[in-house]
Amino acid sequence: SENSIKSLVSIGNICRSPIAEAVFRKLVTDEKLEHKWRTDSAAVSDWNVGRFPDSRALGCLRHHGIETAHKARQITKEDFQTFDHILCMDESNLRDLNRKSNQVKDCKAKIELLGTYDPQKQLIIEDPYYGNEKDFETVYEQCLRCCKAFLEKYH
């Protein structure tokens, strides 16, 4: 229905997705739409559960005036049943998510690459973990463009 809470999860969970989550949350807050959205991020794997985002991700966000208190968690069956959208960063995330969603009865989430919303057509948001500050900045810019376009489409 028109009034249903739309939502967004991005997947990865110490570099790219906390940036996407924080960027999206700020956009939604700036547009005074927080009551319409539940925003979270999660990982496909359980490697980093309970960890705060990478310090470079936090530094990049802070540089843009954005705070986050996110701690990594793994995606759950309920996520597939309760979120309208699950947005991920690259093809391997997409494959893993589609595989997991096939094991969930009544999966309602639409699973897609966040990059499909990029006006600059950069489909993949590369993992900056082994890179430097500039790579985190690139992720931020991509997330910002994609999240803006996504929000425009669904709000």
TrEMBL record:
Residue ranges occupied by any Phosphotyrosine protein phosphatase I domain in the UniProt entry: 6-153
InterPro entries attached to this UniProt entry: LMW_PTPase, Ptyr_pPase, Ptyr_pPase_sf, Tyr_Pase_low_mol_wt_mml, Tyr_phospatase_low_mol_wt
Gene Ontology molecular functions: acid phosphatase activity; non-membrane spanning protein tyrosine phosphatase activity
Enzyme Commission no: 3.1.3.2, 3.1.3.48
The entry's keywords: Cytoplasm, Hydrolase, Protein phosphatase
SMART domains: LMWPc
UniProt subcellular location: Cytoplasm
Positions of the catalytic residues: R16, D127 (proton donor)
Pfam families associated with the record: LMWPc
Reactions catalysed: a phosphate monoester + H2O = an alcohol + phosphate; O-phospho-L-tyrosyl-[protein] + H2O = L-tyrosyl-[protein] + phosphate
GO cellular component, one term: cytoplasm
SUPFAM superfamilies: Phosphotyrosine protein phosphatases I (SSF52788)
Gene3D superfamilies xref list: 3.40.50.2300
Coiled coil (UniProt feature): none
Family that this chain belongs to: Belongs to the low molecular weight phosphotyrosine protein phosphatase family.
PANTHER family given in the database record: LOW MOLECULAR WEIGHT PHOSPHOTYROSINE PROTEIN PHOSPHATASE, LOW MOLECULAR WEIGHT PROTEIN TYROSINE PHOSPHATASE
Function of the molecule: Acts on tyrosine phosphorylated proteins, low-MW aryl phosphates and natural and synthetic acyl phosphates.
Protein known as: Low molecular weight phosphotyrosine protein phosphatase
Underlying gene: Acp1
